[in-house]
Structure formats: structure tokens, C-alpha cells
Amino acid sequence: MLSKSSKYAIRAVLYIANNTSEKKKIGSKEVAETLEIPAPFLAKTLQELTKAEIISSMKGPNGGFYLTDKNEQKSLFDIIDCIDNAHKFEECFLGQLECNDDKPCVVHHIYKPFKIELIENLKTKSILEMAKEYAKNNNLNAIIR
User: Fold this and answer.
1) How much of the chain is in helix, strand and coil states, percent to nearest 5?
2) Which of 62, 70, 123, 124 is the 20 to 30 A CA-CA neighbour of 117?
3) Is the confidence at residue 102, as pLDDT, over 70?
4) Which pLDDT does position 35 carry in this prediction?
5) Is the pLDDT of residue 22 over 80?
6) Measured between alpha carbons, how far is 64 from 52 in angstroms, rounded to an integer?
7) Alpha-carbon distance 106 to 20, whole Å?
């Protein structure tokens, strides 16, 4: 359902949230190496996220990527929407061109309630909440404000 780009973006944002602060920034190469994501691809993705104000960056010798309090309040849905556009969620689960309540695919009515709940959760959980959960579940020594 999610593109590889969105998955990479979410992983990178959660990593940045757990390993940076406004005083301690991180470069895209370090994020790429740690998460085993192609560096040029991730650099472009992080630029898109910065342009959409989902993460922040600073140029220069002490520069890099980080999250502000405002960034941390964004949601995972914001990340997905920035990278893939929210239309991904409107596509048919089986890839049919026409799939709706009037002309459903064979799994439409099974998938629809799940999709609605997923979208709601992606919209209501902040990056900060998800980063804390990620750090806790993975026993990370993260910088969490």
C-alpha cells in the first residue's frame, strides 16, 4: 500500500526525531547509512520533507536535519501525503481502475473499514508520539524531548 519512498521517509523522520535536537543535527548520509537507504534517494526525500516543513534543516558546518516542536506535531499522514500524495489511499486494494461502494472489487467492503481506521490513526498520531513508541519498542537510547 505504501511506496518504498514513503516507507523510507517515515523511517528516516522517526530516526531523525529520535537522534537529533535543534542543537544536534544529523546529515542525510549518516541517516542513509544507518537505515541502509540509498543516500542520493534519501537526500532528495529529505529535501522534499524540508520543503513541506515536516522536518527542518540548516546548512553549514554544524548543519543537518532535525525536528522543531512544530515539526514533531506533524503526522505520519503528512509524511505520506508529501511523498506519495494522499491519493494512494483512494486506490483500489487490488488495483482495479474503478472500485467504489457502487462497483466494489471483491475485497472492497473488507478493506474499506481497515483503510478508514488506518488513515485516522495516521492523521491523529504525531511524529513525536510515533518516535517515542518506536524508540521504546526498539530499546533505543534516543533524544526525546
Assistant:
1) 55, 5, 35
2) 70
3) yes
4) 92
5) yes
6) 16
7) 45
